[in-house]
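User: Working on a comparison across species. This one is peptidyl-tRNA hydrolase from Chrysemys picta bellii. Can you predict its structure so I can line it up against the others?
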Amino acid sequence: MLRASPSRPCPYTKMASPGSSSARALVQYVVLRGDLQREPLSWPLGALVAQACHAALAVVHAYYGQADTGAYLAEGGSMRTVVLEALDEGALTTLAETLKQHNIDHKVWIEQPENIATCIALRPYSKEEVHQHLKKFKLLK
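Assistant: Here's the predicted structure for peptidyl-tRNA hydrolase from Chrysemys picta bellii:
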């Protein structure tokens, strides 16, 4: 739940509650490179999870003032996140270009100092708004 403070009032206090009929089901999609977990790269699971967390937090921070981001954060324990797999860096780059062409707000996480694109996170959207751009990706396993 978002908490307001004197220096940072909550901009979402007048929004519909998540359980109301006017609320839309919002999802945050995270697309992680699957080749990072396989040989020859063989990144540890913790490093992969960290990439997804970095990207998800960065995009929420970047689009904090956007209404759907606020509504998503207000859902608290009911937030929906879907983690998908891009086969490799090329697939991730192609997705980033597609999202940019369609004005879909997202963040490509670049791991430093290696300068490797590892993950893309979208700000929260309704599934209907973005699914067509993500339907070829499978759930990360």
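For your comparison, note: The two ends are 29 Å apart (CA to CA).

User: Helpful, thanks.
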